[in-house]
From TrEMBL:
Residues 38-85 are annotated as: Disordered. It holds the Pfam family PUL. PROSITE patterns: PUL. It comes from the Eukaryota. Residues 64-82 have a biased composition (Low complexity). InterPro entries: ARM-like, PUL_dom. This is PUL domain-containing protein. Residues 40-58 have a biased composition (Polar residues). Residues 89-359 form the PUL domain.
Length: 361
């Protein structure tokens, strides 16, 4: 029986690979290096949208205008990347989406950390820790240099002991670091931002940056690591999934576009691992339930689109594996009908819904 089960799993994964080779999804967005394939910008500028509330876009919500902004500048104008010809398949989408920095100038980030540090009575960074932090940020501009452990320890201290309203520069540094490596030491701190999400000042921004860092880790972490201090992709996926499943995760109440898009991107990136057969069927079923729950209450177009593509990836994976049930199909159809789409002109949501509908008929 065990041999038969292994053979069945191998056959399912082989079928998925063959399906991907013959129905490869389009590369959404432009060809520029670092382009965000869902916004078309030459480089991703976290947390900005032309239709987002200007009071919480592109500003440091705690210190005001003209200061360090973990959100960056407004995105470059460009065509909406999902206005695709109907003959072009959106699924499966197999390219991870990341949140790279728009520049490598860490002086403003470390300057903000030093400003916050001077305001603290307890848990201040020592002069040695500040020096270690400078060494770490310097190493991030050299991809071949491993970030020093002393600097990582200083980041962990800020993320776990500083007031939430002062943690975001440290998390933003880790977001940048995760483009190349993700140290095991900071992973629990990133995951803790899910549990700490509340209406407390700073909590949602910390959550947003932590989720961006996890997305970057899913992109960069290798399947095997030579150093025990670094996170492997399988371990990262396991820890994220164990946190995300509905029975262990409090209901997420996200109020900003930044947070919604970051979380939808996480669902999409995890769905790619479902297509690849890395996430097994039981975990995929729970991830599918979480994605449908998110879609049923979300209205932001970018967040809806990314989670729709993630939903489509998982349905396609279940279908190619022969585990897509009639019960799941019956739940998906009304969900798709509830998504609001434009009634005129090209519409990427309508294109995605149309393609997913063909999978559940």
């Amino acid at each position: 029986m065990a041999r038969k089960a292994r053979a069945t799993r191998y056959l399912c994964r082989s079928n998925r690979r063959i399906y991907r080779q013959n129905t490869s999804g389009v590369a959404l967005g432009g060809p520029a290096a670092g382009a965000d394939p869902f916004t078309g910008s030459a480089s991703y500028r976290p947390g900005n949208s032309q239709n987002a509330n200007p009071s919480n876009v592109g500003t440091d919500p705690f210190t005001g205008a003209g200061s360090y902004r973990p959100s960056g500048a407004p995105p470059a104008a460009g065509a909406q990347p999902a206005e695709l010809k109907s003959s072009t398949s959106l699924l499966p989408h197999t390219s991870f989406l990341s949140f790279p920095p728009t520049n490598s100038n860490f002086s403003v980030v470390t300057g903000k950390i030093k400003e916050f540090n001077s305001q603290l009575d307890e848990e201040k960074l020592t002069s040695d820790e500040l020096e270690a932090l400078d060494s770490l940020t310097s190493s991030l501009s050299k991809s071949s240099v491993t970030p020093p452990a002393s600097g990582i320890k200083a980041l962990e201290k800020m993320m776990s002991r500083w007031p939430p309203v002062k943690q975001f520069p440290a998390i933003d540094i880790i977001r940048t670091m995760a483009i190349t490596v993700l140290p095991t030491q900071v992973l629990p701190c990133l995951l803790s931002k899910f549990r700490e999400l509340s209406n407390q000042p700073g909590a949602e921004l910390n959550f947003t940056l932590a989720v961006r860092a996890l997305n970057n880790g899913l992109t960069s972490c290798p399947f095997t690591v030579s150093q025990p201090t670094l996170v492997s992709k399988p371990d990262l996926v396991k820890q994220i999934c164990s946190l995300l499943f509905p029975e262990s995760l409090p209901k997420l109440i996200l109020t900003t576009k930044n947070a919604k898009v970051a979380f939808a991107t996480l669902l999409l990136n995890l769905s790619i691992l479902c297509v690849d057969g890395i996430i097994e069927s039981d975990a995929m079923a729970q991830l599918l339930a979480l994605t449908t729950q998110f879609l049923s209450t979300e209205s932001d177009e970018e967040a809806v689109y990314r989670s729709l593509i993630g939903l489509g990836n998982m349905i396609l994976s279940q279908r190619s594996s022969g585990v897509l049930t009639d019960a799941n199909k019956s739940k998906i159809a009304p969900l798709l009908s509830s998504v609001k789409v434009s009634q005129t002109g090209p519409n990427r949501l309508a294109d995605a819904i149309k393609e997913i509908n063909t999978l559940v008929k």
